[in-house]
Amino acid sequence: MEIVDILVVDDEPGIRSGVARILKNFSVSYPFLEDDIGFNVIEASTGEEAIQVISKSVPAVVLLDNKLPGIQGVEVLEYINKNHPDILVMMITSYASLELAIKATNIGAYDFVPKPFTPQELKSSIENITKHYFLRRMTRKLHSEGKQVRFQFLTILSHELKAPLNAIEGYLRMMQNKEAGDSIDNYMDFIDRSLSRIHSMRSLIMDLLDLTHVESGKRNRNLREVDLNLIARSAIETMTPLAIQRDVSISLEADNDVTLFADSGDVEILFNNLISNAVKYNKPGGWVHCKIAKSANEVRIEVSDSGVGIKEEDISKLFQEFTRIKNPQSKNVTGSGLGLSIVKKIADLYGASIKVDSKIDEGSTFTITFPIPTGDLLNDSI
């Protein structure tokens, strides 16, 4: 159980001890919490003592009486608002007035509970303020993580685009300076390498567009029954020229009339990325087998290959953005490292699961299983 500190500032010992007694075995649960939240009550009898306590260890919540000996509660509230704005303050006072409530709210009080209060009233207020504390903390954490992820993404993206541009510039300058002589034939290797880099950058840009469309949630999906066999055959035809170059055969095994309620663009990306990877990370003379099957409860797509395979410890990394698993047999294979992360995001949109079976030098099988949802479930999940 997580424990948060609550500072009770009141000159009445009975109020302080009463709050401690009421909250001693009280805890707050929330559907998003892994553990319940309990409370450690700290006491202060004056505003000056409260400021000393806060300066040493910042509590999550302060229950603050306004009528105190010495400085008043609103002055302590002003100190908190100025120096520790993360603290949630709940005013507790016998002298509640609209004027005081407005003033306290304007300088940062979260809630205002007049005394005397019952144990149930206190527990209810503490439950509300604790949930607010948790949600605010989670919001800040997610915001911070989002910034970090975006920074990492842009750093990697900059590198992925800068490296081929530098290479192409280098080849062009060598040609500009005629470092290999006057014959254009002497520069064919530079030209081929430049075209290869341009092809890689175009692939990266196309994958980024797919990723942006998937993540933005703004793309209008045209959900309808799509023919998986038709889309699979189209993906295979698209990849056939590369498969011929690499001496890899592609086959399709499918049940008749397998359809899925989905956006055809999403399904095209799935097949294109899976089959493309199976061809690229294969061996001369290898094969790629695509299988589509439908049962009463699910639609299953399998793409198997006789390729280089993936180490078991690397499988969990496959769906991370810009991840390319390198081994001696695939070190010259180009790719953006985004294809499988896009596949995963699309599968998530449909509540589908992805399973990867692989053995080094024997090949891999990617299996995507789509549940066949009811109408209501479909509307909730997409």
From TrEMBL:
Domain of life: Bacteria
Protein keywords: Kinase, Phosphoprotein, Transferase
Reaction(s) the record says it catalyses: ATP + protein L-histidine = ADP + protein N-phospho-L-histidine
Residue positions, PTM 4-aspartylphosphate: 65
PROSITE patterns referenced in this protein's UniProt entry, alphabetically: HIS_KIN, RESPONSE_REGULATORY
Residue runs in coiled coils: none
All copies of domain Response regulatory, residue ranges: 5-130
Domain spans labelled Histidine kinase: 156-374
Known EC number: 2.7.13.3
Molecular functions per Gene Ontology: phosphorelay sensor kinase activity
InterPro entries (alphabetical): CheY-like_superfamily (IPR011006), HATPase_C_sf (IPR036890), HATPase_dom (IPR003594), His_kinase_dom (IPR005467), HisK_dim/P_dom (IPR003661), HisK_dim/P_sf (IPR036097), Sig_transdc_His_kin-like_C (IPR004358), Sig_transdc_resp-reg_receiver (IPR001789)
Protein name (database record): histidine kinase
Biological source species: Tenuifilum thalassicum
